[in-house]
Amino acid sequence: MTEFDDEFSPAFEIAEPTVWRAPIIFNSPHSGSVYPNAFLNASRIDLEALRRSEDSFVDELIDHLYDQGFPVVRVHFPRSYIDVNREPYELDPRMFNGRLPSFANTRSMRVAGGLGTIPRVVGDGQEIYRERIAVDDALGRIETLYKPYHRALRRLINQTHQTWGTVILVDCHSMPSVGVTRDEPRRPDIVIGDRYGTSCSPLIPSVVEETMAARGYSVGRNKPYAGGFITEHYGNPASGLHTVQVELNRAIYMDERLRQRSDRFARVAEDFTMLADALSGIPLADLGPFQAAAE
After folding, report:
1. Where are the domains of the chain?
2. What are phi and psi of 241, to 5 degrees?
């Protein structure tokens, strides 16, 4: 048994309803808050600083959707430990003792920013580790946590697609209420990411925007977050595979300083029910798969 088996039980969960209302999956990949002791001991910053990278409570905002007939996926390990919203091997060679595999992507923009598959920094830019970590440790996290999560998510998506002919994956995240720099404009309550129109039918972000705007939220698209690896990797709208990222401003549902749910928490959870209802009203025929037009 590895350290991963001991401390994550389970590493992630898929709550699948007995009767599905629609082919819509809600996913929370960054809400994990189970921190391995070895990780805490290797960190140069305390637990409170590490937790700033969490999408705190987002999994709780959507877990009730299981009772409404929608599957819900939630991860228990923290993104500062390993980030499943990255390619499997986006790794910074400066972080590790030992040689990385030749196929590792060491030059992505995310690696350069310290936010690869094994992050070097937390969300506010603080370095995580006191010293380099073993390559085998990093590869163990990928094999034991990252890959099983993506195998399970891919299986759920494929089964849904085979059963319904289409699928919508709603990837749920949260963002700090203010940006890193003062030059960044005020962030809206919700940012919809569809990789600039490439990860899903335009119907889907339109429904998200209309539904949430009607509930009183300010809504933006693709800035500052257009969607990460999950949105890009699983979205193929021509084949009826749709992914959309929904990024919540943390100020709308929690006290960021105290890391506590605010009085508006229940209302935001209720609004996710409204969003699920609205998305389930999209005619399946409008979501593909689509055949190429004859020449």
Report:
1. 3-34+49-76+143-287
2. -105, 110
Strand locations in 109-208 (E): 133-134, 167-175, 190-193
φ and ψ of 147, to 5 deg:
-65, -45
pLDDT for 3 equals 42
Two structure tokens written together for 196: 């600039």
Location of structure tokens 């010293």: 131
CA dist 277 and 227 (Å) reads 23
- What is the bridge-based pairing of β-strands 260-261 and 254-255? antiparallel
Q: Given the DSSP bridges, would you call strands 190-193 and 219-221 parallel, antiparallel or unpaired?
A: parallel
Reduced to 3 states (helix: H, G, I; strand: E, B; else coil), residue 96 is strand
Residues 6+ apart with CB under 8 A from 265: 57, 61, 253, 254
Confidence of residue 112 (pLDDT cuts 50, 70, 90): very high
Q: Structure tokens of 221? A: 């698209």
**CATH second-level architecture of 3-34+49-76+143-287?**
3-Layer(aba) Sandwich (3.40)
